[in-house]
Amino acid sequence: MELRQLRSFVVVAEELNVGRAALRLHLTQPSLSRQIAALEHDLGVELFARVKRRFVLTAAGATFLADAQDLLRRSDEAVRTAQRTQRGELGTLRLRFVQSATFEALPRLLGVFRQTYPEVVLDLESWTTLRQTEALRDGRIDVGLMRPTTPTAGVVGLSGVGLTSRVVAEDRLVVALPARHRLARRKRLRLADLGDQPFVFYSRPSGPAVYDTIVGFCRAAGFTPRIEQDAADVQTIVSLVAAGLGISLLIGPTPPSNPDTVVYRELSDGLPTWQLSVVWSPDNRSPALARFLDLIQTAPSAR
Asked: Do residues 54 and 104 make contact, with C-beta atoms less than 8 angstroms apart?
């Protein structure tokens, strides 16, 4: 039994006239009659009968019609689903991101993608740059949103492991201060202004390269930061700053906060910016990834 036989049967059942059905199907009447006869032979039942010179469905034909129509609907839907998946309109996009991407770049990029491809399933999770790089190389994720280990390096070593990147933001180091802190009255600060302050810092195990780089900036400015408390995530750091446990240095953009409790100030030291890049494997043939990469080229830029 073939799908073309089912389609022919359904049209004949709808028309109850071989001539009209043949016209709809763009077939000759003898060819259509042979298809119906072959289908009846395969099924071992009569689908049509002539009653008082009228062409009618048999009881078996009427039962078979409902199932045939359902099979054709499902067949058509399967074709449409396959075609939409190939176009990247369906499927899953496995995306991982560093935490600092969640405050501007991630919602900006995903907002455009979700609006354009609402039926693609988004598999999202916050991972470190190192973990993302390994997973991209192994094919366990489709795309990463990551930062380099140091601001001057870019996302280094990617070509050596077969990955491609595109910069989507350039972010600066900023100072987080309790709103009533004496330094909060200034619009811009120098790192050297912070030398006598207690710090709330990123925990080194959660990002040793970032930790060491920021400490290195402080040492170049003439002091080693006095770290009173550390935390693995930036929201906790900001909460601890708001509680007055110290100040902090954060890679922008910063999380939303109450300006009556925490304020952010730019640095005037001319420090290099920290790139945020979309990274993927050119060997990944996921249509959803291809559509995501198309869209990030036209997505609104970071402000």
From this structure: no
